[in-house]
Amino acid sequence: MKSTILVVDGDVSMRTVIRDLLTGRGYLVKTVSDLDAAGVAMADGEPDLALVAHGLETGEEGSFRLMTERAGLSVPFILMVDAAMDNPVDAALKSGALTYLKRPVDRSRLMMAVSQGLAAGQLMARVREREAELSRMQAFLRRMTDTGDGVSFILDENGVVIQCGDRTGALPWLDADSARGKTYLSLLPEPAVELHEGMLARAGQTGQPVRIEEHKSGIVMETVASPVIRDERLAGFIVAQRDITARRRSEAGLAESEKQYRSVFEGADEAILLVDRSNGLIVAVNHAAAVSLGYGEEEMLGTSVEGMVVHPDKILNGLRKGVERIAYEYLRRKNGSTFPVEISLSYFTNSGREVCILYAQDVSRRKIVEEALREGARLYRAVVEDQTELICRYSPDGRLTFVNGAYARFFGEDEDDVVGRDCFAHFGVDDRKKIMEWLERANPSEPVLDSEVRQVRADGSMRWIQWTSRAVLNERRAVVEIQAVGRDITDRKDAEQALDAATMEKEQYRLNLVATFKSIPDAILTVDSNLVVMASNSAAATLFAFDQGRMRGLRLEDVVPGEGNPCVSVLKQVLRTDKPVRGYEIELTTPALGERMVEINCSPLIGQDKRHGGAVLVVRDVSRVADLEKKLQQRHGFRGIVGGSAAMQDVYGLLEQLSSLESIVLILGESGTGKELVAEALHYGGVRAGKPLIKVNCSALSENLLESELFGHVKGAFTGAVRDKVGRIQAAQGGTLFLDEIGDISPLIQLKLLRFLEQKEYERVGDTKTLSADVRIIAATNVDLREAVRQGAFREDLYYRLNVMPVHLPPLRERQADIPLLVEHFLASFSDQFGKSFESVSEEVLDLFMGYRWPGNVRELRHALEHACILSPGKSVTLKHIRKDLLEQAYAPHAYAAPPESFVSASSFSSPPPVRGKPGREDILAVLAECGGNKARAARQLGIHRATLYRKLRSWGLDH
Question: What are the φ and ψ backbone dihedral angles of 472, each rounded to 5 degrees?
Answer without folding.
Answer: -100, 120
